[in-house]
């Protein structure tokens, strides 16, 4: 049995796990501090699990933006991020150097999407989106079962969409103001609501413009990605479960009758909470590790025999 490790590197906390794709056997969580300290603690944790043999592969599911193209000179490094001290930080190189095994990297939301597609709420779906609404807002996209990469990776949280009429909140994103992360993330909601979102009753009318903004996001994804499933996770969605059905109920109106199949009932079965909860990211990291090991085995099999 192969021994796999995963690192979910979040803006607030880091989760390190040992197990298999679809199964977590060991788990440790700690605060994400400075880059060197955080990465070193993750490596130390994995090395501590080396009893009978070293791990076979590691998957890293990281907050972003991060360079995911292996051809890039700064592959595995954070780009410009609002988290102090992390812009330019190397994530992959120190892990690979210390552990000497295959290492795979993707965004935390792409990894969570892989986990939910393989083991959770999006099983059987070739195309899906995983959204997380918490400290930030991110979205992972799978097309034909593969995470979307291009110039970078999807940055859904920094899209701007139509605002609700009369909503004067300026937004809280340091880069874009009223992008989706600046409107819907936990810190943005705290500024928008004047208190921690968990303290605002579900029936409070202050949730109405918030539900509108989430509905705009969902309608945009339906029109641009045409996913079979949208899984919406994160602390905000978990603590305010009324928000998702409020938003889903607004999507048909926003679509304006253009997609007649997108009824409220249809969308209610298509836009769902995660099945894996807080384990989506760590389990996604283990999926990345299994893919890294598969790639290594395939590469070895295709090495020409010596003459």
From TrEMBL:
InterPro entries: ATPase_NBD, Carb_Metab_Reg_Kinase/Isom, ROK, ROK_cs. Keywords: Magnesium, Metal-binding, Zinc. The keyword Zinc applies. Its cofactor is Mg(2+). Its EC number is 2.7.1.4. Signal peptide: none annotated. It comes from the Bacteria. It catalyses: D-fructose + ATP = D-fructose 6-phosphate + ADP + H(+). PROSITE patterns: ROK (PS01125). This is fructokinase.
């Amino acid at each position: 049995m192969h021994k796999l490790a995963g690192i979910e590197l979040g803006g607030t906390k880091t989760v390190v796990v040992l197990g298999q794709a679809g199964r977590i056997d060991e788990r440790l969580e700690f605060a994400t501090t400075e880059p060197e300290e955080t990465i070193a603690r993750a490596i130390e944790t994995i090395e501590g699990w080396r009893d009978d043999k070293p791990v076979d592969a590691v998957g890293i599911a990281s907050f972003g933006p991060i360079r995911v193209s292996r051809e890039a000179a700064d592959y595995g490094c954070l780009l410009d991020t609002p988290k102090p001290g992390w812009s330019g930080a190397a994530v992959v190189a120190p892990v690979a150097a210390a552990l000497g095994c295959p290492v795979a990297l993707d965004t935390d939301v792409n990894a969570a999407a892989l986990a939910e597609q393989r083991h959770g709420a999006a099983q059987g779906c070739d195309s899906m989106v995983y959204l997380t609404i918490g400290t930030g807002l991110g979205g992972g996209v799978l097309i034909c079962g593969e995470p979307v990469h291009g110039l970078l990776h999807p940055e859904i949280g920094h899209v701007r969409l139509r605002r609700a009429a009369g909503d004067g909140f300026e937004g809280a994103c340091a880069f874009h103001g009223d992008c989706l992360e600046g409107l819907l993330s936990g810190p943005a909601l705290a500024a928008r609501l004047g208190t921690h979102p968990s303290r605002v009753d579900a029936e409070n009318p202050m949730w109405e413009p918030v539900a509108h903004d989430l509905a705009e996001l969902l309608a945009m994804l339906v029109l641009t990605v045409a996913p079979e499933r949208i899984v919406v996770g994160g602390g905000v969605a978990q603590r305010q479960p009324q928000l998702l059905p409020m938003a889903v109920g607004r999507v048909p109106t926003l679509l304006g009758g253009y997609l007649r199949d997108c009824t409220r009932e249809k969308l209610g079965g298509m836009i769902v909470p995660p099945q894996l909860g807080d384990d989506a990211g760590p389990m996604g990291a283990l999926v990345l590790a299994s893919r890294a090991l598969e790639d290594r085995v395939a590469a070895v099999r295709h090495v020409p025999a010596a003459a």
